[in-house]
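Example S7 (structure tokens).
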């Protein structure tokens, strides 16, 4: 694990959280406007935004943010891009566990938390795996 750069992992985690929050806000606002244009009352809009479809959309947005965070961390790390992605995934799990420990997140079903904990590290690793390092050509000696 010595190849893991704390600064790269930290920036990747900030990108993960920032992208997730920003995309979630854009999705929520767009969904609210769409439902309002359909003529729904504010109570029905609120219920729809808090429904199971919204949970799945939020889940996908969160995984996309983690993917992006893993990618950014791997780009910033000088070596071992997968180690940087793993760091982002572990840090994301730690923050999620802290979030649950302080009593937040009780309003969503248990399957949502379990699925998040199971998929966050693979998402970060997949994002890191998209980073390719240039091949260093070694001279062939005869």
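Recovered sequence:
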């Amino acid at each position: 694990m010595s190849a893991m750069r704390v600064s790269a992992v930290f920036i990747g985690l900030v990108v993960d959280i920032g992208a997730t929050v920003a995309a979630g806000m854009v999705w929520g606002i767009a969904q609210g406007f769409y439902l309002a244009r359909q003529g729904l009352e504010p109570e029905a809009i609120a219920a729809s935004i808090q429904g199971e479809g919204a949970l799945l959309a939020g889940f996908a947005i969160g995984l996309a943010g983690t993917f992006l965070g893993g990618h950014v961390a791997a780009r910033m790390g000088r070596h071992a891009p997968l180690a940087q992605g793993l760091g982002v995934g572990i840090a994301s799990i730690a923050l999620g566990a802290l979030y649950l420990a302080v009593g937040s997140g009780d309003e969503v079903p248990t399957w949502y938390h379990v699925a998040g904990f199971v998929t966050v590290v693979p998402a970060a690793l997949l994002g890191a795996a998209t980073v390719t390092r240039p091949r260093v050509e070694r001279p062939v000696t005869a």
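Notes on this example. The helical segments are 6-37, 42-49, 52-76, 81-101, 110-129.
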